[in-house]
Amino acid sequence: xxxxxxxxxxxxxxxxxxxxxxxxxxxxxxxxxxxxxxxxxxxxxxxxxxxxxxxxxxxxxxxxxxxxxxxxxxxxxxxxxxxxxxxxxxxxxxxxxxxxxxxxxxxxxxxxxxxxxxxxxxxxxxxxxxxxxxxxxxxxxxxxxxxxxxxxxxxxxxxxxxxxxxxxxxxxxxxxxxxxxxxxxxxxxxxxxxxxxxxxxxxxxxxxxxxxxxxxxxxxxxxxxxxxxxxxxxxxxxxxxxxxxxxxxxxxxxxxxxxxxxxxxxxxxxxxxxxxxxxxxxxxxxxxxxxxxxxxxxxxxxxxxxxxxxxxxxxxxxxxxx
Amino acid sequence: xxxxxxxxxxxxxxxxxxxxxxxxxxxxxxxxxxxxxxxxxxxxxxxxxxxxxxxxxxxxxxxxxxxxxxxxxxxxxxxxxxxxxxxxxxxxxxxxxxxxxxxxxxxxxxxxxxxxxxxxxxxxxxxxxxxxxxxxxxxxxxxxxxxxxxxxxxxxxxxxxxxxxxxxxxxxxxxxxxxxxxxxxxxxxxxxxxxxxxxxxxxxxxxxxxxxxxxxxxxxxxxxxxxxxxxxxxxxxxxxxxxxxxxxxxxxxxxxxxxxxxxxxxxxxxxxxxxxxxxxxxxxxxxxxxxxxxxxxxxxxxxxxxxxxxxxxxxxxxxxxxxxxxxxxxxxxxxxxxxxxxxxxxxxxxxxxxxxxxxxxxxxxxxxxxxxxxxxxxxxxxxxxxxxxxxxxxxxxxxxxxxxxxxxxxxxxxxxxxxxxxxxxxxxxxxxxxxxxxxxxxxxxxxxxxxxxxxxxxxxxxxxxxxxxxxxxxxxxxxxxxxxxxxxxxxxxxxxxxxxxxxxxxxxxxxxx
Lengths: 322, 513
Description:
The complex is a heterodimer. By secondary structure, chain A is mainly beta. Chain A is built from one helix and 21 strands. Chain B folds into two domains: 42-263, Orthogonal Bundle (Vanadium-containing Chloroperoxidase, domain 2), CATH 1.10.606.20; 277-509, Vanadium-containing Chloroperoxidase, domain 2 (Orthogonal Bundle). Helices cover 58% and strands 0% of the residues of chain B. Chain B has helices spanning 2-18, 67-81, 85-95, 98-112, 144-172, 177-180, 199-214, 219-235, 241-263, 274-286, 317-322, 334-348, 352-362, 369-382, 389-417, 422-425, 444-459, 464-480, 486-509. In chain B, helix 4 (98-112) runs antiparallel to helix 14 (369-382) and helix 5 runs antiparallel to helix 7 (199-214). The longest helix of chain B has 29 residues, at 144-172. The chains are: A mainly beta, B mainly alpha.
């Protein structure tokens, strides 16, 4: 019953201006696997808001927006195809709102995301355990929401594909996990028939630059509690800066550095199929994104279809038998 | 584990093939312009500002047997013997038509400069200065009235310059280089036109010269485009160096006539002064009306309040006053309350299709503006017509003079009535696009679109009903967005059509029909 909280990485990777801090990820960014035929399901509520943002490198506020907030409720599930191969699926409903000015908030179902997570390797190194995971994932917009209404769009409406390599080292109840991700983004179609970036484009298609990120998390991990500090850096590989007082656009160069804390608490004894997760993130630095502060809270439940006692395992916590 | 590896491998292959990175412009790969009719008599069409097509003398060209001309041909042969892929690309790009390509350049510049200035620390706003164009905020802020005027000046100057060009082509009768020397390839297509002076160079010269007035920060950038076009004209075998030189010079001379007029058309004073801005408020209050207020924070001065005084191409100032409609419903009237309630109900129940329409027609910050959108619509249809460059220029000038006069009339009406936006009357009205920073009555989108649809419907009668439907959709988009009352758009459509009719009158009398 370890952590199966995921973040739909479509939100994580695309909604930077509206909601950068929803990039908190576990399961698709941790070293935890579900056992074969175990299904972990749950829901997370997230709240993210900012009143300052960066136009290129120029940091400002905007009294025509006030505080821009994004809320989401994400439904998600993780299933153990085998002990070494999990599938992780999620989709959020998103609301956006600006406290000042006249712009109309948006809401709706955003993108479906899915990851395949494969534990490729685990071995004893020194007194601890090193494990290596390879992940492949993708996202797909579920509705015809408007991408070109930043900062109040609920998403960027791009189909994406990602590859991630994740390495975890655990020594006693302390761990560190590092991962790097590359995300390819498909071009999007907007409702306009031309637009200006750094030149005029006579088309309704928008090239979306690819993205890369790394994530480091470290802390305490046991069967009943995970408490960790998290740092994430995201880069847009291309894209362009918002000029002073210009409008944002989906193909902007959105970069951010975020730091935060996460926990997961698993209830004791006969309630141990149930866990509570939560955390907070803060955008330390950014470019063409809002300086968001966010928090989230969720609950997860494990269902066992294997006719054995249900169990998620942290392979890194179990010494490899030689 | 093998299955896992193959799943990952499939993922990687899918990844490499699924992420399309090849977005290209609709007009990137057009064929060379091949006019069905060369309009060889266009030298007799009625110019807009010139009184005669030969106001500016063009020297008699050297004979095609002269050493000077032989040197010209050798330059072409030198290019054609060693064409780079970049040069071939320039030839293909410019061969689609100079009026089209320069129109696209203008739309790009309008979009680039269409950003409202950021406020000063004290909450006031800096005003772009033509005298100091590189300092922030850069000059110009190409908002819709500015853009409407800029498109009109460039298009009208291009038209007059090409009428003069056609006059001299007929007078001097110098054939194209590929007709004089059969070893020269016609890489941009063959036409029946004489080549002196070069129509492409006339367009380059007239447009580049207009930049000193309209986009001073872009003079160097546009000069590079001029050089690319002129190189393409020579390397493609369409024109010689002497055809180019004569054309560019003629174009620049004619541009000066338009620049001189523009410097005296009152656009430079359209920003107004704090005293003038305050006067609109007291005038509206004296008439017991709620005056328009900027909905921006800090409050931004109204956009170009004196643009209604600018000297148009089609309508004189008395006509602008005569075109002014009656007032909107009084701000305290039941009718205004009902329209405000309707705006609130609409914004709470907008459909996705209505949101698409709002987005499609928004043409706000960093776009080519509504007149630019109608230039795109016109150019898309004009490409299908195989017109000569001079007819392209004439029809673009008719469209853009109508758009400029629509801007003048619309701004005259807006500041005469100084009527608030729906969100000012009811703060619960949240909008699906930015609220423009000027009064509501009448809708600029409606006027621009109705004027454009009217004149374009005259130029291409088979498309007239389609243009009317587009104009109506553009007008509706402002109601769906929550930024206009229904009456703003209905009256705007009517006045816009009246402006369009002035363009039609000119079209019927210019000798091109």
